[in-house]
Amino acid sequence: xxxxxxxxxxxxxxxxxxxxxxxxxxxxxxxxxxxxxxxxxxxxxxxxxxxxxxxxxxxxxxxxxxxxxxxxxxxxxxxxxxxxxxxxxxxxxxxxxxxxxxxxxxxxxxxxxxxxxxxxxxxxxxxxxxxxxxxxxxxxxxxxxxxxxxxxxxxxxxxxxxxxxxxxxxxxxxxxxxxxxxxxxxxxxxxxxxxxxxxxxxxxxxxxxxxxxxxxxxxxxxxxxxxxxxxxxxxxxxxxxxxxxxxxxxxxxxxxxxxxxxxxxxxxxxxxxxxxxxxxxxxxxxxxxxxxxxxxxxxxxxxxxxxxxxxxxxxxxxxxxxxxxxxxxxxxxxxxxxxxxxxxxxxxxxxxxxxxxxxxxxxxxxxxxxxxxxxxxxxxxxxxxxxxxxxxxxxxxxxxxxxxxxxxxxxxxxxxxxxxxxxxxxxxxxxxxxxxxxxxxxxxxxxxxxxxxxxxxxxxxxxxxxxxxxxxxxxxxxxxxxxxxxxxxxxxxxxx
Length: 496
Fold this sequence. Notes:
Structural class: alpha/beta
Radius of gyration: 25 Å
Oligomer: single chain
Strand content: 15-25%
CATH topology of the largest domain: Aminopeptidase
């Protein structure tokens, strides 16, 4: 997909895409400016097709020279960065019905109430690339389906806007590629996506980067470190565990030292507390947090944040067998804290107990973990929002800011002290599932917090509802792995 920037001349492309407000007079005025008069036939078509400029609507004008597609953007007078991203997704939706390889845009049409030309470039390419994503490596080609293959994107803008637009476009490509890698990892079947496969992907990412190194700890290494909790969850599986530690170091002195910890359960059967088949069907995506980490690290060498970043993944399967951990067992994490395994399907938090402790032993004082931790967060927030729990307001505010910019929706939930007693165990320091069935996302977050030292700024993103889309989340997030958190966290890290 080649970007061509033009500053003058008639629009020359197979298709011109123009966003319009939900306002009839504005639509008619735009049509006049494009050379279409208010002929009765055109007005009649607007009425018959009920095109009002509502969000998601489109109106197509075909002539011998080109196709003009009006994209409804709704009533808002100011288009946000995510509005641009969604409108770009609408372009791809149209191109799935009409085969065009060369498209054009006029920047002034898009800068409606928002003159941020850099973010326009960024969001347009993100929307185009992410909306066109398909995971079809295991499918035969559908000869009847129109394949979206954009050869050129011509953008008409002023000379002074060129540099900023190009920078945004190039940055957006990096974010989209990183998200697509994470999506690919989530979409792989569990027979392929084993802990060993995940480790190889981490090695591949490090091998392609000058400033990223990786260390893969095997079972013997993990045992020496005392990660009994992590090893306990792995006991029922024939697949060997892998503990993945990625490190990015910037050029010059690092402004901070941060860990991104991703849950890496490559398949979750529930263990001996086995899930019903409906609940197990998509449990290949229980490593979505790990996919976010690996996707994120694939872009660091080019984005070059000024902070040292550690990516930490405790990867294993949770399977039932004669060697699997049993309900009622007690295990110790690497800090010596005992955990009662009250339910084997609350396994992710047990592996995270060791991953979080390991991160802190690296001298890290700022941690964000990303985990498909609870079904309870889906009941609380539905399929469009991740739950955010944090012990630090500044960290909370930063993550909220950059998630909004990325169009990755998160919502803050409380670390309710009055619920902490629900995690008390009669035989250990803590139990891995609360005694109450209520507030499950909160009690799971409180469990993780129990392994965070008081002087560490920590945030937990429960992405169970948003890691895998059963239906499209928006115009640029199709069914399947979402790659949630990659772009928001990269935006956050790049701004240090």
